[in-house]
Amino acid sequence: MRATAEELAPFLRPWVPVVSLSKGLEQGSRLRMTEVLAQVLPGHPHGVLTGPNLAKEILAGDAAASVVAMEDPTIAEALQEVFATDLFRVYTNHDVIGCEVAGALKNVMAIASGMADGLGTGDNTRAAVITRGLAELTRLGCAMGGEQPTFSGLAGMGDLIATCISPQSRNRYVGEQLGKGRKIDEIIDEMHMVAEGVKSSKVVMELAVEHGVELPIAAEVHAVVHEGRPATEAYRGLLGRNVRSEMHGMPGS
Amino acid sequence: MRATAEELAPFLRPWVPVVSLSKGLEQGSRLRMTEVLAQVLPGHPHGVLTGPNLAKEILAGDAAASVVAMEDPTIAEALQEVFATDLFRVYTNHDVIGCEVAGALKNVMAIASGMADGLGTGDNTRAAVITRGLAELTRLGCAMGGEQPTFSGLAGMGDLIATCISPQSRNRYVGEQLGKGRKIDEIIDEMHMVAEGVKSSKVVMELAVEHGVELPIAAEVHAVVHEGRPATEAYRGLLGRNVRSEMHGMPGS
User: Fold this and answer.
1) Which residue of A has its CA nearest to B125?
2) What ipTM does the predicted assembly reach?
3) Is A106 a catalytic residue?
């Protein structure tokens, strides 16, 4: 639910930059979080802090790397200094769209990676799902105005890997349970936290249609989560696809 | 050790394509394996089969995806049909150099990822090491004539991830033991298989100098493996580097 400009006004001077820490897309409107911010808090510089940042590890004092994305590099560099510590390394990036889209889409791929885990496939399959998943994320993200290098960086590949390999990832957990043959309602009922990828998969498939982009892995996740397709069939569906050149459909190919 | 053309002649008709399954660079000459093939078996079309293909899992019947790279797409497609099965998916790629360089360099990064594991850092660090490691691999690989999209594909990112996360990876194991503070000679002595990254790290650092490319992670691996630097110091060294724009030094930036 959105806050109104009136509710937020007392907290912010008009020149203060606003940084989104949320990874998702608004249901219905399909807007990115900084697009929502632009409507709710117009006039402020908007950006996003994102990357492979599992909260529990950061709280435990483990080192992590992150990306602050703002269109204006001066503000990005100022925020870099605000957020960075000896153990929390912050890189700048000007590609706000790419960083945001990557953060939203990776949750869907984490469900796919978890499904492979639940089905008992090994690290080869996991690496292939993550790699081909990033290709899907890049295809849709670039169609939405993001830039390719962002998807190869910490906000894209980095966050995707952490989410797909970490036992702490809620989205990966949902996928794992689906891979073991459990029903989605049952899994969600017993969880006390949100698994964003469940909702995002719907928005992502709408965006795929809108932008005319093929997303075979996301489509299978959507079918399992929202149409009751068994995970074993989704896996077989992906294996049954025609293989061709690896770069088919990539930007520049 | 190289075979001579005379030793190999009885096995091959001159038009038969020769596919390298080795991931490494020749010591001293710093040649890629297909460059060695071109010297040993001149005239044959040369290529490489590579990707996230941990042998044990393929033998166990788990699905895996791979890349066959040949300069001639017709030969690549013919070999795709030779190698592919229902569970072994083979993509084609024309970028032989990129596929080969990625396969050699990823072993060095697997040692780095293993070192982080041995030091007890979490999945955030692991994801960051893999992501920044791929950026290093891409920088050097492109300087050597490889193409950027290859490094984002199965031969690059895919193989790197599998090697960095799999408990079966010998290079990751060597790194893990180094991270726990053990000496390299002791680790190698008790292993009955080759950890290619130990040798490759030397060649990779020579290539970095030759091509004028910065490889901070590979340099730390080299220092730990060949100069006795403790893994804890290598880790601190990487954390102490200046952060800047994430795309600094990437092709096209």
Assistant:
1) A64
2) 0.88
3) yes
For residues B138 and B151, the answer to whether their CB atoms sit within 8 Å is: yes
Query: What one-character DSSP code corresponds to residue B32?
Result: B
Model confidence over A158-217: pLDDT tens digits? 999 999 999 989 999 999 999 999 999 999 999 877 788 999 999 999 999 999 999 999
A94-105 pLDDT tens trace: 999 999 999 999
Judge whether B176 is closer than 8 Å to chain A, CB to CB.
no
Confidence of residue B236 (pLDDT cuts 50, 70, 90): confident
Res. A253 pLDDT band, cuts 50 70 90: very low
Positive or negative, the CA dihedral A185, A188, A189, A190 is: positive
Give pLDDT tens digits for B78-131.
999 999 998 899 999 999 999 999 999 999 999 999 999 999 988 999 999 999
8 A C-beta contact, residue B177 and residue B118: yes
Q: Is B123 on the interface with A (CB under 8 A)?
A: yes
C-alpha dihedral sign at A71, A75, A78, A84: negative
Closest partner residue to B162 (CB to CB) among A127, A135, A151 is A127
One of B106, B180, B183, B199 is an active-site residue; which one?
A: B106
Q: Which one of B68, B131, B134 makes the best mutation probe of the A interface by having the most chain A beta carbons within 10 Å?
A: B131
End-to-end CA distance of chain A: 41
Question: What distance in Å separates residue A54's CA from the closest CA in chain B?
Answer: 6
Percent of chain A whose predicted confidence (pLDDT) is above 90: 74
Among chain A residues, the shortest Cα distance to B166 is held by: A123
Q: Which residues of A touch B236 (CB under 8 A)?
A: none
Does B134 sit within 8 Å of A152, measured CB to CB? yes
Q: Please report how the helices B216-227 and B123-143 are oriented relative to each other, as an axis angle in degrees rounded to 10.
A: 100
User: Which position among A23, A106, A180, A202 bears the catalytic label?
Assistant: A106
Q: Is A42 part of the contact surface with chain B (CB cutoff 8 Å)?
A: no
* Helix orientation angle between A196-211 and A96-119, rounded to the nearest 10 degrees: 120
* Cβ density class A209-241: b for 16+ within 10 Å, e for less: eeeebebbbbbbbbbbbeeebebeebbebbeee
Q: Which residues pair with A46 in a beta bridge?
A: A18
Give the list of residues 6+ apart from residue A87 with CB closer than 8 angstroms, or none. A61, A62, A63, A64, B239
